[in-house]
Amino acid sequence: MKQKAPFIDSLLGFTAVVGLVALYAPLIAVVVLSFFQITRLRGVIGFAPFSLEPYAALVANHEILSALATSLTVATIASLASLVLALMFAFYFVTARRGFGLLMQVMVFLPFLLPPIITGLALLIAFREIDFSRGLATVIIGHVVFIVPVVYRTVLVRLQLLGRSLTEASLDLGASQTQTLVHVILPQMRPALISGLLLAFAISFDETLITLFVAGSETTLPIRLWAMMRVGFVPEINALATLILLFTAAITVAIGLMQRSQGERAS
Amino acid sequence: MSAAPTRSDTSSCRRARALVALRHALNLGLPILFVLIPILSFVLVSFWTLQDGQIVRTFTLANYRSFFTEGSYLPVYLSTVWLSLQVTFVNVTLATAIALFIFRRTPRVRFFILMSFMLPLFMSYIIKVYAIRTILGQRGLLNEGLMALGLIDQPIEVLLFSRTAIFVALAVIYLPYAILPIYLALDRIPANYLAASADLGASALQGLRHIVLPLGRPGIAAGAVFTFILTFGDFVTPQMVGGTQGFTFGRIVFSQFGLALNWPLGSALAVILLATTLLAVALAGLTLRREHVR
Amino acid sequence: MAATNGPPPFQSMCETTRVQPLLHLENISKRYGSVRVLDGIDIAVADNEFLTILGPSGSGKTTILRIIGGFESIDGGRLMFDGRDLAAVPINRRPFNTVFQDYALFHHMSVAENIGYGLKVRGRPKAEIATRVADVLETVGLGAFGARYPAQLSGGQRQRVALARAIICEPRMILLDEPLSALDVDLRAQMQRFLKSLQRRLGIAFVFITHDQEEAIALSDRIVVVNHGRIEQEGAPEQLYRRPRTPFIAAFLGENNLLSGVLAAVDGQLGQVDTAAGRLVATADGPLPALGQAVQVAVRPEHITLSPASAATRDALTAEVADIRFLGANILIELTHPALPDTVLKVRRLADGSAADFRTGQKLNLSWAVHDAALLVPGG
Amino acid sequence: MAATNGPPPFQSMCETTRVQPLLHLENISKRYGSVRVLDGIDIAVADNEFLTILGPSGSGKTTILRIIGGFESIDGGRLMFDGRDLAAVPINRRPFNTVFQDYALFHHMSVAENIGYGLKVRGRPKAEIATRVADVLETVGLGAFGARYPAQLSGGQRQRVALARAIICEPRMILLDEPLSALDVDLRAQMQRFLKSLQRRLGIAFVFITHDQEEAIALSDRIVVVNHGRIEQEGAPEQLYRRPRTPFIAAFLGENNLLSGVLAAVDGQLGQVDTAAGRLVATADGPLPALGQAVQVAVRPEHITLSPASAATRDALTAEVADIRFLGANILIELTHPALPDTVLKVRRLADGSAADFRTGQKLNLSWAVHDAALLVPGG
Amino acid sequence: GPKGEVRLLAYEGYADPAWTEEFEKETGITVKVTYVGGVDEQIAKMKASNGKDYDVVTVDTASLKAFADQKLIAPIDKQKLTSAKNLLPAFRSMDNATFDGATYGVPWAWGSLGLVYDKKTFPTPPDSWEVLWDPAYKGKVISLDDANNDINFGAIVLGIKDPFNLTDQQMAEVKAKLIALKKNLLTYFAGFDEGTTIWSENNVVLMFSMGELAAINLQKKGFDVGYVIPKEGAVGWLDNLTVSAGTSNTDAAYAWMNFALQKKIGADMAKKYGYGATTDAPQGMDYADRLIWAQNPENYTRRQAVWNEVKASE
Ligand SMILES: Nc1ncnc2c1ncn2[C@@H]1O[C@H](COP(=O)(O)OP(=O)(O)OP(=O)(O)O)[C@@H](O)[C@H]1O
Ligand SMILES: Nc1ncnc2c1ncn2[C@@H]1O[C@H](COP(=O)(O)OP(=O)(O)OP(=O)(O)O)[C@@H](O)[C@H]1O
Ligand SMILES: NCCCCNCCCN
Ligand SMILES: [Mg+2]
Ligand SMILES: [Mg+2]
């Protein structure tokens, strides 16, 4: 049922189109520029003919590729670790005494309620005070601290929605706590786990402001991009950004289709 | 309740107790170690001072005093708060309209529309800011395009390096963060509510006002908080597109940790930043107080 | 009461209401994709009438109600209210209200705000809303609950709020979609009584949906039985119960003993049916089928008389008591007949001590009045 | 059947089962915070018994079941199974299984996987699981449904899966928490029959929870009625129905006419009660209260005989027919008595044509056998 | 040779992939580069671990003392610096990098913060920085954003003799001058690329630049621009290779420095990035004598505060 409201709908539609145009303009610019580089002959704007040069250059640019590799490593480890921690915290919240649970929750949420600069600085100062040298580990810790709240939230909502009854049914049928976790709870939470993981990965992959503080000699992709502002953005950046965008779009569509078919089966 | 415990009972009892202790240690210990202590340690630093380039570890409120009395801190702080509030207001309004737009589509296409609004999050933030600048410049793609089309004959100059530009850039970058929570809140509205509202004589607009928006309020509040926090803390975007207007509070905080090496003052300013965002969270929480959950 | 004051059996109420129906669904059909869910539905609702649409799950009841309410479009037919075509009337302008199955109470509004919503969106002044809400709250027996929120009410109380919300704008008709199915047994009985008395007090039409035949019988002036998107039969409760026209109706409304056989001879409205247990006489309600056709004889458990097996009477079956089930106010005697291996014959008695003599294993004669045996045509 | 083969009325089944109960709840009590929700609950369940715990909403039924299942701790008392204290036995080691009210089917597993789960976690080989699942699917009549997912089943089918899952490990007892309350009327009747026959076939004990007294009566060997966390009365269904000890039981199981009065005279188990409508004689089941005390007389609607008002008999009331309600198999005649303004007297008759003579407005004499009038002490 | 890893904290252009690959092949030492955008960031990174994260750090002469005072870098062991012989005579003394008898840095690359101008607007190169303040060019001027160098710049424009040790009075004058400039600016920029990108996408005609590279890049893009050191002079900067106080592989650090100080590397850097090399006479950079070589300023903290006030001013 949808109540007809042509005026409201056209207003909302207009806003949505404006929103989409605004959101996609930078993306489209990047994609287009990855194929047609801008030229400015004596200040006059123009476009070079279609070329895949930036893509070829990207394949040869070991610096960027190694930064990309670091970013992928960090994002993979950080998102998996965040998932495990978020699960642990969520179980704690639903089972431990309320006071303890709330205390944990406030602390876990804090970094997400703070501008990243604060989290970055806090970790920077703390690592320095305990003389913990910075490296991949500190970057991952920084990311995990920032990501866990997001994943925790997703996982907790799902866990609370699950209620006790499936767990109790499993125990009642003779399963141990571990069997219950593996066979019942985790599978039931799969959509939440997947979306939590993706979100975590995406945030970590693009995290700049915390990483800036906690990265030692490690260079993630955003940090590399940040440094490039000093001397020059090479065209292969546009190529890389385009590839990442295509990749994430494909994953999104795949997940959408997967969840839809699951939803049809499960609801 | 049962008879005297046997030996195996006590040892398994001990193991169970150890497990419980471990659980508390992990669940409370990790956040304390990696969140609480870092934040507290920099709150602590904010009460120290810098003298002759060296940190003096005695308690003082001097840094906080500086914030209120010295030079530019307070005005910049206030103008940054104001800027963030403006972006928050505009973005939440836009995001609410967009979330409503998605909400009024048929269920099977909603996910994809929502995702198309989320996809821009996956492109690097720095690349996006760069691209925005390429578009908005005096000889940027937008001006050149409009001139090529003959729509204007002079480039529009305020597009970039102005408060307007900061506004537009922050709005574009953070819009998805507001859309998501608002849409998720709308998505939880039972389908029947709108049918009931219409049945009782309400127009679509009245249904929107009395049912959809009130029930979307938690999402709207969450979207507002996210937007405020992210824009308030962002010190890169304003600098890159704001021209001489792009000096924000985050930038001041950041500058204390560079050559100025004034960590204590930087920490104090950061604590003020922190307090502001916590205040925003608390205010949002307060507006939800009256919420009646089902 | 319908049972005593209603129109005489054998005459369809449709005749009466067609004169000036309040609401008239004319030959409505509806498809979802390629599936036809409603097919030629024709229902007339009279002013003040308590009309029930009864049918099994998936038969299309909710779809009918949603079409009336305007929540669903139609693919054929017409919808008239008070002589006016409703096609162009949007939901919020239709002059009747709905009580939803899950109540659809607005959880962010208090009870009073929920009830006053219809007036508020019509722009009535606050003072008027307050008085009328207070009135309606009294009507549904929730005087003191205005300030509460739906989450703070029990199921039955929520039900009343939904009702109050639907009647406050004084519609000439309200639509109710299985409003009682979420309530537990005791509450349901209580709310049934309340609904019925409310309808009488308000003097407006109720279009009520249920799949519970007991509920339908207890409440309705008239019942329309829907099956597979078509109207199977309609009439006063007693008429449907006593004079089912199809085996479906016979089995769906109350319990029945259905015996299959072949029509062997005809005498006026009476038919002689050869069943595995012998020849039975049954009364047809309408034209009789051809001789030799497969038919069924339906006899209600409460219409069967039991007597010691020695007595030999016409139309009597001899069967053995298999089980005696105590149901509280009634006792159900289940009997088996050697020639009917798949059938349990059921006989109902009041648990007033009169059935105390029966014992399992006992052989008894079953008999009934000829007019209590209905001759039905399967699939007819 | 309980009604015919069960122990004679007036003798508690407890005597029988206390010899060797399968499950014994001894003096269980339970608090939530400062609220005491169970108080001295003592229930013995015999092998093979169909025991129902019946009570109104909030009376503590689920809490009892959850305590047996191990999902809830107790604050006092003991829980014995087969002579063994269950205190130290964790949920997954308890030798019985539960059918949850909302089924709690794992929706990410197929029907077969759901049913086989108990065997899988016990590490049984795949082949064995497959055969046993197939067997149990046959038992519950879902042979062809193994590969489906719960979402693709109807309510009744889900119910069967939950049952199958609970019985596959061959427990000596299963616990069922209102398993039928989510089903619609027809399905419920069908599943009641199925449950009862299943219990007989398996020969295991069923502890069944419901708030539906009709269901309890139809299914149980024995009913324990719980109210406000205490046991109000227990016994075979017919015994409880016929011999309620308190007004609560009298009103909760089936319909009753309750007339208040004062005990005026006593003669053996018979008491003479002065009510607003005159002096009535009733039979007490247990010690009689003191003279002059407030008591109630309970008479079942089906135990009342109606006769033309001219005949004057002992214990007869004269009342006027207010309404005749057709209920399908039964007819309910509602009468009013000038001295009992707040009471509607109900009389139940089989709808077999014998009540066809009654008319609203008619004056009738009500009479009943003395042993059908129960003398009850309010709050007793 | 020494094996392991050398970690560089460097500006863009100081660790070209061609060099690092050659170095890795030659020595077997892996190179790991962390790029920074400015001194602020650099000192923040060093300070956070007292240098433990890096082995070789490029520090400009003006900041060397701050690094040394904070004990973030270690004195150079000249014995190990076998390539020092490649340095031009002017740089060989390393006096600028020497405090209390210890030398902390080896000169490696130099440049100036000159004026970039649009040749169409200015057929003859502007001869004074004052052109930036000319209201005729309001909104067409951009300036580097760097607390220390902006103040140096302001002092130079005002003709202050010692731009690195300003009195309060002088500081106030500089601040006022910079605030006045701000009113004429389109924007500040933070790096080479930012400067040239902003130039190419907007109608800019004058830039207080980050160096020669700005002009070179613009010319490459087809802009007709010139680079000039106006009559007041300009800040000259000199970046030094230094050894981190926290290094865990001193040998690798020296191996990199010796490798980097080869003439062919310097030439390659000059060609690719337009920096002046310290191992070869720079072509076209004939104004070294007019540069005012940056020195350690009187008080960084104060300069940062002043600069913040400039940027915060209305
Ligand atoms: N949106 C839909 N799309 C496709 N089929 C539908 C849709 N809604 C209902 N149906 C189908 O139409 C038929 C009638 O549905 P309807 O809800 O009217 O039944 P009902 O009689 O109200 O059943 P119940 O007693 O279970 O509520 C069903 O077979 C149902 O599956
Ligand atoms: N976790 C709890 N905390 C506090 N009170 C509780 C809790 N669980 C149950 N109660 C209370 O205990 C009492 C008994 O609850 P229980 O669920 O056993 O009732 P029930 O007889 O099963 O009712 P129903 O028929 O409604 O299911 C109720 O008053 C309930 O409010
Ligand atoms: N792709 C994940 C979103 C990254 C968000 N970056 C936010 C920067 C905050 N200032
Ligand atoms: Mg329906
Ligand atoms: Mg319960």
TrEMBL record, chain A:
**Major place of localization?**
membrane
Asked if the Swiss-Prot or TrEMBL record annotates the protein with the keyword Cell inner membrane, the reply is: no
Compartment annotation: Cell membrane
Keywords assigned: Cell membrane, Membrane, Transmembrane, Transmembrane helix, Transport
Identify its membrane topology class.
Multi-pass membrane protein
Entry keyword Transmembrane: yes
The record's CDD domains line, in alphabetical order, gives: TM_PBP2 (cd06261)
Q: Which residues form the ABC transmembrane type-1 domain?
A: 68-255
Question: What family does the Swiss-Prot or TrEMBL record give for this protein?
Answer: Belongs to the binding-protein-dependent transport system permease family. CysTW subfamily.
> Which PANTHER family is this protein grouped with?
PUTRESCINE TRANSPORT SYSTEM PERMEASE PROTEIN POTI
Q: What is this protein called?
A: Spermidine/putrescine transport system permease protein/spermidine/putrescine transport system permease protein
Source organism: Ancylobacter vacuolatus
From TrEMBL, chain B:
Q: Which Pfam families match?
A: BPD_transp_1
Q: Which UniProt keywords apply?
A: Cell membrane, Membrane, Transmembrane, Transmembrane helix, Transport
Membrane protein topology class: Multi-pass membrane protein
Read off the InterPro entries from this record: MetI-like (IPR000515), MetI-like_sf (IPR035906)
Q: Does the keyword tRNA processing apply?
A: no
Family per record: Belongs to the binding-protein-dependent transport system permease family. CysTW subfamily.
UniProt-recorded name of the protein = Spermidine/putrescine transport system permease protein
To which species is this protein native?
Ancylobacter vacuolatus
Automatic annotation (TrEMBL), chains C, D:
Query: Domain of life here?
Result: Bacteria
Keyword set includes Transport: yes
**Family matches, as PROSITE patterns:** ABC_TRANSPORTER_1, ABC_TRANSPORTER_2
- KW Translocase (keyword) present: no
Q: Which UniProt keywords apply?
A: ATP-binding, Nucleotide-binding, Transport
Question: Gene3D superfamilies per the record?
Answer: 2.40.50.100, P-loop containing nucleotide triphosphate hydrolases (3.40.50.300)
Pfam families reported in the protein's UniProt record:
ABC_tran (PF00005), TOBE_2 (PF08402)
Q: Which SUPFAM superfamilies match?
A: MOP-like, P-loop containing nucleoside triphosphate hydrolases
**Which GO MF terms are attached to this record?**
ATP binding
Q: Which residues form the ABC transporter domain?
A: 23-253
Record's family? Belongs to the ABC transporter superfamily.
| Protein name as annotated | Spermidine/putrescine transport system ATP-binding protein
**The species this protein was found in:** Ancylobacter vacuolatus
